[in-house]
Amino acid sequence: AFMQASWDVEEVQAEGIQYLASFVEDKTAFPYLLTCTEVITLAMKVHTDSLDLQVEGCTLLLEILSQALKQGVMMALDESVASCLLHTVRKHSENEEFLSMLCTLLMMVSASEVAAENLRKVGIIPDLLSILRRFLHNDKICFSCCAVLWSLAVSEDNADQAVLASALPVTSAVLQEHLHNGVVAESACSALWALALQGCLADSDYEPTAALLLDALRMNPERARLVQNGCLALASLVRLSETAALAILLDSKGSGTELIKEEYHLHSHQPGVAEALCLLVNEMVQYDDVMLNMRSQKMEKLLSEIKLQFPFS
């Protein structure tokens, strides 16, 4: 009520945010803090010119969301909060340090399906893409933005086909730039998988995207989640086009089938990886020429091994 009585007074809003922040460590106050997210974001929207207030508000929201996630509480922030956050993103789109914090916040918010849907409704995707283009070198921003893209693109009833199609070159550029950074590469692979699921690729995209995903698998063979999501992304590409399947077989850096075998042997006790590899192989053998090639590569032997390892899956 103290904050709501004086929206236009920056000092009141700053004091209010600082007062709320003093309760972050108090477990009993947590349920009340959860109800304050709208007040905090609105204060940020009204005073977007004050960077200090933006930083303090964003820090407090991060604290509240972190606590919520630890306690298994999913915060489904509504459209008005999503709109306030977008307003803040646009106002401070040049400030790399603050954006890094804000993109982490967006990533945490988008873990909730309802909040992700609200961010999509207010039109945040083009802003995310422009942030990625501007700060392609920043691993933290790239990691967060790709994670948000994944959350926004993966929803079933996606009406943003044209907008999402424009995300492909940017997401590919992120993966290319951060191939050696497993954390960012993993996030970019997930985003590419979501874009492939939504059918956001043109004919000319299948080969280069497949080659890029294979590079990510080669560079980060030990990261089970990256291997899993990379294979699921490849499977989605292969489902759409034989060109992708041939690109995997005939990759200039080495046989994709050999890579599949190596990845399985590295992660032979990970059911998620085995499942993703089987899905990829299953999509590839839908094409006669590809199936003949895979037979000659003794792929059946690998599948028998997987069946023995996971007899009940």
From TrEMBL:
<dbReference type="GO" id="GO:0004674">
    <property type="term" value="F:protein serine/threonine kinase activity"/>
</dbReference>
<dbReference type="GO" id="GO:0005524">
    <property type="term" value="F:ATP binding"/>
</dbReference>
<keyword id="KW-0067">ATP-binding</keyword>
<keyword id="KW-0547">Nucleotide-binding</keyword>
<dbReference type="InterPro" id="IPR016024">
    <property type="entry name" value="ARM-type_fold"/>
</dbReference>
<keyword id="KW-0808">Transferase</keyword>
<protein>
    <recommendedName>
        <fullName>non-specific serine/threonine protein kinase</fullName>
        <ecNumber>2.7.11.1</ecNumber>
    </recommendedName>
</protein>
<keyword id="KW-0723">Serine/threonine-protein kinase</keyword>
<keyword id="KW-0418">Kinase</keyword>
<dbReference type="InterPro" id="IPR011989">
    <property type="entry name" value="ARM-like"/>
</dbReference>
